[in-house]
């Protein structure tokens, strides 16, 4: 089972190495530029994802509808989430600013409607979007009374068929709003919602209206009653007698309600921290750079730090180990005491000390990681040489006058290769982990570079509360280090059977 895992780990490592080598050709986006700067080249229309032209029409008192609603305005409850602007051909265009949900109040004169917009967020509980008052079938006579018949539509498209359902919905929305006092917690007018329904006569001389919605005719003319529910409002035209108001005939149709083909839109925040999607499988970071592209590009730099630092440290450590184990004496004591001193420090602490002396930078990170690798290989190779130099073939070579340098190079060093290969593989994983740790602490390479540890550092400082900017670079480090450790463990069992459990 262990050997099978080692083979799988080896295959994964080969894929990671190939990814590092060909990373410039594999990144779907340029890793150091915001993705929005690259969308045009990829045929992605940003406006279609971040803007919504509200499909609003006006319902007139004669039953007709108009596309060009006069003096139409829009106000978002949360202005930090959404901005509104006039469209090129009229109407209202809503533009996403940042993630969140907000209601938008559309208003023209005394009538209003509500749309809900989610920007990279799920929809909230549906609220009243459109309010309609059924027109009267015939003019009233003076003294007549009539009750307003209402219907409505919620932001999720659900229809409310009668006044009772509308009143219940409006009361629920009003109860759900926090009532702020004048002690510093006052919401904007657009955010205030009334509890239940409210009725107001805009022509009190012609018609009156009770709080329960009962309309009474007072004199001849054309009465107008405003009905409000939450943040929506509509008008009811009430003709009384001859339909004369203030001595002037009302002939032009009056806007009574706003109608919407759609009352909910889902937009995207494309300017930072895009969540994982088909377009960006790992999402984007605080600078709106594609995380997948940065992980792929960072593979090269991460592997360079791991491989180069271990090979440099191993080369120096193997040399010291060969000299110490073969010659012994004062040289052995000097080298082993030096190795013991270095090994007395934790690897990360020793690397931090080296960086503190040399300063940050990729080359200095490699030197820092190599520094704590040297004593490990020195001790391992020295122990192997102490046993190899007592072998018969070494004694025979020494007895016939073969030079020490030749004996070390041809007879002793080849005997240490198996143990060197084992620990070389295992130390690469540790070196990658130490290098990423230094970058995470801000002691590594350029903090803007696509290196896995630097990505974790940037996510820690700029992406608090979000999981994916930290998750994917962390998984890249975990998988790479784990595969190197498993491969090294498998090589140990294959090359040195005596070390098997």
TrEMBL record:
Stretches assigned to the ABC transmembrane type-1 domain: 299-488
InterPro entries: BP-dependent_transpt_permease, MetI-like, MetI-like_sf, OppC_N
Gene Ontology MF, one: dipeptide transmembrane transporter activity
Subcellular location: Cell membrane
Family: Belongs to the binding-protein-dependent transport system permease family.
Role: Part of the ABC transporter complex GsiABCD involved in glutathione import. Probably responsible for the translocation of the substrate across the membrane.
Protein name: Glutathione transport system permease protein GsiD
């Amino acid at each position: 089972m262990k050997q099978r895992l080692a083979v799988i780990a080896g295959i994964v490592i080969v894929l990671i190495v190939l990814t590092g080598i060909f990373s410039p050709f594999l990144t779907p986006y340029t890793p150091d530029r915001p993705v929005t700067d690259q969308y045009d080249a990829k045929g992605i229309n940003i406006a279609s994802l971040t803007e919504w032209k509200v499909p609003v029409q006006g319902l007139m008192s004669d039953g007709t509808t108009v596309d060009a609603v006069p003096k139409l305005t829009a106000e978002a409850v949360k202005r930090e989430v959404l901005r509104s602007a006039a469209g090129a051909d009229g109407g209202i265009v809503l533009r996403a600013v940042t993630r969140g949900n907000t209601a938008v109040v559309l208003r023209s004169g005394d009538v209003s409607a509500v749309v809900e917009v989610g920007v990279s967020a799920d929809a909230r509980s549906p609220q009243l979007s459109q309010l309609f008052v059924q027109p009267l079938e015939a003019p009233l006579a003076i003294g007549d009374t009539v009750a307003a018949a209402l219907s409505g539509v919620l932001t999720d498209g659900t229809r409310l068929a009668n006044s009772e359902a509308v009143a219940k919905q409006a009361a629920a929305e009003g109860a759900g709003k926090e009532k702020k006092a004048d002690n510093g917690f006052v919401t904007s007018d657009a955010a205030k919602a009334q509890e239940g329904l409210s009725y107001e006569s805009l022509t009190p001389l012609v018609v009156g209206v009770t709080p329960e919605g009962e309309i009474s005719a007072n004199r001849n003319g054309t009465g107008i009653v405003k009905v409000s529910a939450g943040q929506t409002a509509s008008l009811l035209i009430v003709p009384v007698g001859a339909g004369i108001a203030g001595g002037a005939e009302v002939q032009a149709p009056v806007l009574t309600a706003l109608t919407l083909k759609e009352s909910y839109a889902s937009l995207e925040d494309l300017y930072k921290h895009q969540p994982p999607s088909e377009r960006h499988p790992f999402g984007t970071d605080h600078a709106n750079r594609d995380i997948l592209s940065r992980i792929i590009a960072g593979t090269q730099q991460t592997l360079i730090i791991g491989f180069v630092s271990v090979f440099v440290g191993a080369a120096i450590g193997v040399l010291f180990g060969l000299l110490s184990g073969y010659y012994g004496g004062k040289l052995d004591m000097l080298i082993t005491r030096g190795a013991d001193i270095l090994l007395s420090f934790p690897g990360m602490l020793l690397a931090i000390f080296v960086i503190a002396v040399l300063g940050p930078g990729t080359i200095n990170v490699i030197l820092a990681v190599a520094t704590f690798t040297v004593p490990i290989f020195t001790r391992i190779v020295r122990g192997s040489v102490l046993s190899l130099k007592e072998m018969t073939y070494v004694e025979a070579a020494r007895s016939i006058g073969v030079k020490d340098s030749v004996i070390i190079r041809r007879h002793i060093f080849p005997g240490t290769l198996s143990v060197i290969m084992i620990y070389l593989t295992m130390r690469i994983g540790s070196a990658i982990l130490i290098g990423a740790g230094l970058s995470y602490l801000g002691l590594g390479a350029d903090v803007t570079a696509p290196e896995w540890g630097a990505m974790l550092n940037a996510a820690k400082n700029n992406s608090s509360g979000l999981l994916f900017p930290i998750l994917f670079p962390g998984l890249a480090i975990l998988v790479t280090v784990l595969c190197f450790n498993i491969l090294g463990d498998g090589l140990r069992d294959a090359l040195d059977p005596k070390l098997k459990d």
